[in-house]
Write a structure and sequence with these properties.
2 domains, 14% strand, 6-stranded antiparallel β-sheet, alpha+beta, 17 helices, single chain, 458 residues, 48% helix
Length: 458
């Protein structure tokens, strides 16, 4: 079938707007028979490493915002009953503000993009934008910002997304594909004191660029008999040799090595040749994030030319996306591949070692570098002005990923030039933040009454 023209795409978007008014996105009320949020978390826990589940609860317990970070499944179930335009894109699926950050491009530039794709799937762009907008509302509330500031910051997210989509809709396909955000773009986009901005960006660059394999070698390993081994640092890092007794460690190590060999076949030839120059030294289990705690996540230490040439690979379990309970399933048999292909479609530039693998007859995994100039924004501190700047940055970045994988002309036409969608999603975000608070209170009650086990993190 022939592709639609630009004018036809625009009319397609306007038709979707007549079918689903922008104001309808401001509505939020729990669907009749809404699933118990604590029950949804318990169901997820059933497939996770049982000795790490209490740590997951401990990390979610810290605040309503950290709880929100672990609620991708809860919110997906809620979003399934909300209005959509019918204009699908590749969505991240867990697009809260902490899942954006900086990393090194293959050209060794510090770039900014979305950085978590565990739940990625094709679906409504509104679901991603709502999850992002709500995260800014909750974060602002968590930082004690006045209500008017929280609403304005949330509106900034949507406006940035809308204005960026208008720009991307006017681009040629290749121009859009090559678009990315680097540090110079951050300086150009900022509306704050230039000296203060330069100070903050320079500090951010230093911190991000310090997160290399050599830094990980110092932090994650110990010297034993003249070589390096992954250190024991429970409850966040366990060498395989220190796993609980019920695990067959030799069998697990052999399976991990086999999985790494299978992973290499998913890389293009030059990167596989590069990786073949390294040898595996040690393997451990590493706890990452909030919502991911309890999933099987391995870290492999590899050595290249000598002990000063380390490479750390993260081998992270990938199960079915929580969105697949409500949207068409992934076309890929391996969920690690689902994550990788979604990441490549959404991100402007991706890790050269990104690939996937599986245990024979068992779990699926995706593989990437553990540390390569990784940088993130501190969400436990900041001013309303800084939050507005970050909101614009995240909104713009999300729009680019959606424009690459969807129809930017139709989405732009649907959103229009006014602030109707900004206001609607700000209203939705405030209402859903209240729902998150109620779910958080129920979560705390489940810990207090012993329904959920929670680790003591001191």
């Amino acid at each position: 079938m022939a592709a639609r023209t630009v004018d036809e795409n625009a009319e397609y978007g306007r038709t979707a707007r007549r079918r689903t008014p922008r104001s309808s996105h401001g509505e939020w009320a729990p669907a009749p028979g809404r699933a118990d949020p604590v029950g949804l978390l318990e169901e997820q826990n059933a497939t996770r490493l049982p000795w790490l589940v209490p740590l997951r609860h401990a990390r979610m317990r810290v605040s309503p915002f950290t709880f929100y970070r672990g609620t991708a499944r809860i919110m997906a179930a809620d979003l399934a009953s909300t209005p959509v335009s019918g204009l699908d894109v590749q969505i991240g699926g867990d697009a809260h503000l902490s899942n954006f950050g900086a990393y090194a491009s293959p050209e060794r530039k510090l770039v900014f993009d979305a950085n978590d794709f565990d739940e990625t799937l094709r679906g409504p762009w509104e679901w991603d934008l709502k999850r992002l907008a709500v995260s800014f509302t909750i974060a602002g509330q968590n930082l004690g910002f006045p209500r008017d500031d929280c609403r304005e910051i949330t509106a900034h997210v949507v406006r940035a997304y809308r204005e960026a989509m208008a720009s991307f809709a006017a681009m040629g396909f290749l121009e859009l594909w090559y678009d990315h955000v680097d540090v110079d773009d951050l300086r150009a986009a900022a509306e704050m004191d230039r000296a203060e901005l330069d100070r903050r960006i320079s500090r951010f660059q230093r911190r991000a660029r310090s997160k290399t394999s050599l830094q990980a070698l110092r932090k994650l390993t110990v010297r034993v008999d003249g070589g390096h081994q992954i250190r024991s640092d429970p409850p966040v890092l366990f060498p395989m040799r220190d796993l609980p007794a019920e695990y067959d460690v030799p069998e697990l190590e052999a399976a991990a090595l086999d999985a790494l060999e299978t992973y290499k076949t998913t890389l293009i030839d030059d990167r596989r040749w590069l990786l073949d120059r390294y040898r595996v030294i040690d393997i451990g289990v590493k706890v990452v994030g909030v919502g991911s705690v309890g999933t099987r996540c391995l870290v492999a230490l590899l050595e290249g030319r000598d002990q000063g040439d380390p490479l750390f690979l993260q081998i992270k379990e990938a199960g079915p996306s929580v969105l697949e309970e409500h949207l068409p399933k992934s076309p890929y048999d391996n969920h690690g591949r689902r994550v990788v292909e979604g990441q490549r479609l959404i991100q402007a530039q991706s890790d050269i070692f990104l690939g996937w693998t599986e245990r024979p007859g068992g779990a699926h995994f995706y593989v990437r570098q553990l540390r390569d100039w990784k940088g993130s924004v501190d969400v436990e501190d900041g001013t309303p002005d800084e939050a507005r700047f970050y909101a614009r940055l995240c909104g713009h970045t999300m729009a680019r990923g959606h424009a690459r994988s969807g129809d930017p002309v139709a989405i732009r036409a649907y959103m229009g030039k006014g602030d109707s969608l900004d206001l609607a999603l700000t209203t939705f975000s405030e209402a859903y933040a209240a729902q998150n608070q109620d779910d958080y209170d129920r979560f705390l009650a489940a810990i207090a009454d012993g329904r959920l086990e929670c680790a003591d993190t001191g």
